[in-house]
Design a protein that fits this description.
The protein is of the alpha/beta class. The chain is 42% helix and 18% strand. It has one domain.
Length: 79
């Protein structure tokens, strides 16, 4: 199935207004190419022509990124 369609349907199903999507495969380009402005897209490994908004070099960078996002949110909610 088309990953972009599946993500949009899943968001609709749970009532999500936004999504954060990380992928490392050519089939993830379905999501990276969606016109929705409420989906942040990250590709692991740079690929020429990728439509992802952001890139990480390695899989292990995902945990570091997520920890940083949580830390920023915690700081924001305490100020």
């Amino acid at each position: 199935p088309h990953k972009g369609t599946a993500l949009v349907e899943a968001m609709r199903h749970i009532g999500a207004e936004a999504a954060f999507y990380v992928g490392d495969d050519d089939t993830d380009e379905d999501v990276f190419s969606l016109p929705e402005g409420n989906i942040v897209t990250v590709r692991v490994g740079r690929r020429a022509g990728s439509r992802a908004q952001f890139f990480l070099q390695r899989q292990r960078d995902i945990n570091r990124l997520l920890r940083r996002l949580v830390s920023l949110e915690e700081k924001r909610s305490h100020s």
